[in-house]
Amino acid sequence: MRSWFALVKKEIKSMMFSILIIFLLITAWEVYLLTKANEWPLGLTFGLGFVPFGIFPLIMLVMGYLSFRSEWKNNTIYLLKTLPRKGYELVSAKLVSSSLIYIFITVYTFGLHIFLHWSQLKYLWGYLPEAVNQSYSNRMVVLIVIAYIVIGIIPYIISQFSYLVSCYFDKFRWLVSIVVFVLSHYILLRLGGFVARVFVWMPDIPIDASWSTPYGERLYTIYLGSGPVIATLIILAVFFFTGSWILKKQIDV
Asked: What is the pTM of this model?
C-alpha cells in the first residue's frame, strides 16, 4: 500500500508545473473579472467566474489521454512495466492523483471566486425570489458535488482507456484513440440504458427541496433513478479494469 501512495505522490509531483500554470490562469481570470465588476452589467462578472468549471472536465479528458502517453514519450514506461505492481494499481494511481488535483483546483476556484465577489454575491442574493432561496437542501448540494466529480472522472477513464487501446497499433494511434473514445461513449449510453433495467428494483435517490408559496412553505421530494447511476459505474469499471489488463498483460514495450 505504501508503494501505491508513492506512485500517487510521484504522479502529483510530475504535474506540479501544469498545476501551477492552471492556478495562475485561474487567479488572473478572477482578478480580471474583479477589475471589471464596476464596468460591466451587474452579475456578468459573477457569472463569468463559473466558466472555468466547464473547462475543468475537459482538462481531465486531456490528462487521461496524456497519463500514459507521457510515459511512452519520456521512455519511463519501461520502468513502470517492470514495477511489481498490478495493472489496476498503476492505472488507479494516475486516476486518483488526477482526481485529487481536479477536486483541489475546483475548490480553489470556487473559494477564490466567492471571496473576490462576496459583496456582489450578497447583493444579487438579496434580489433572488424567496422561493428560489428556499428551494435547496443539503442532500441536493452533496449530490451536485458528487455529480461534478463524476463528470470529471468519466472523460478521464474513457480517454485513458482509448489511448491504451491505441497502443496495439504502430500507426495512426491518435485516430484510433478518437474512434475508441467515441465508441466508448456510445457504449456507455446505449449499454448503460440496458444495464439500468437490471437494477430497476433498486430504491431511487430522494432529494428534498423546500419551496415557499403564498400559503406557506412546502416540502417536495424528487426521486432520481439509481439504476442509470449503477449502470454507469459498472461500465466505467469495465473500461478501467480492461485498460489495466491491456497495460500489464497485452502491451509490449
From this structure: 0.85
